[in-house]
Amino acid sequence: MMEDPAVKDLQGSIAKIFVRKAQLAERFYFHLFEQMPEVKPMFTSDMMRQREMFAAMLVSSMQTLSDPDRLEEKMQFLRISHARLGLTADQLAKGANALMAALIEVMGEALSEAERVAWARAIVHLMRAMAPPGSDLELSDQTDMQIYFISR
Ligand code: HEM
Q1: How much distance in Å is there from the Cα of 54 to the middle of ligand 1?
Q2: DSSP three-state, residue 141
Q3: Distance between Cα 85 and ligand 1 center (Å)
Q4: Spatial distance between the Cα atoms of 49 and 55, rounded to a whole number of angstroms
Q5: Domain boundaries defined on the chain
Q6: How far is CA 91 from CA 33, 125, 134, in A?
Q7: N or C terminus of the chain with fewer C-beta within 10 Å?
Q8: Ligand 1, pocket-test mutation among 17, 54, 90, most atoms within 8 A of CB
Q9: Is 130 strand, coil or helix?
């Protein structure tokens, strides 16, 4: 779990992100498909509904960061619901990039540096929950994500 100051930074920013969650989800899938066109066919249901489920899951997981048991339940759900997809560590790292890029794009200056760092760490945590056993995401801090974003 993340240590307290980072959790506070992140949770303090949830309200302002919540109001833009639809746009955040839209930009997440934009970046996800741009970086990994091969995952697009995996989405077979209505994308509008998918975006809503994604945004709701993102916000509710972030709200449980300071409650290990409830957080574990969320992570378990993500692990189980993505297991059949066989996502690789590399794909999940790209997913983390896509989400961080979307966050920076949508929130811009509205997020402080500390809040960005806290989100970057939480996003990696989220993606790790879905990683194949024994693997690790190479992307371990926000620097690479910001480099991806700036290079676009
Ligand atoms: C590399 C990153 C990711 C990829 C490639 C991915 C891919 C997918 C795919 C293909 C589905 C099934 C869609 C369908 O059946 O049409 C799905 C479902 C879902 N994903 Fe992800 N996902 C990623 C990350 C995330 C993250 C970070 C979250 C959480 C915020 C998330 C939340 C969900 C939810 C809530 C569902 C619906 C599960 C259900 O009710 O069955 N995904 N994802």
Answers
A1: 7
A2: coil
A3: 9
A4: 10
A5: 4-150
A6: 11, 14, 15
A7: C
A8: 54
A9: coil
pLDDT for 79-113, tens place per residue? Answer: 999 999 999 999 999 999 999 999 999 999 999 99
For 4-150, CATH number? 1.10.490.10
- Distance between CA atoms of residues 9 and 66, nearest Å: 12
Q: What is the DSSP letter of 43?
A: -
The pLDDT of residue 151 = 41
DSSP 88: -
Atom of ligand 1 nearest to the CA of 94: 1
pLDDT digits (tens, 9 = 90+) for 37-52: 999 999 999 999 999 9
pLDDT band at 140 (very low <50, low <70, confident <90, very high): very low
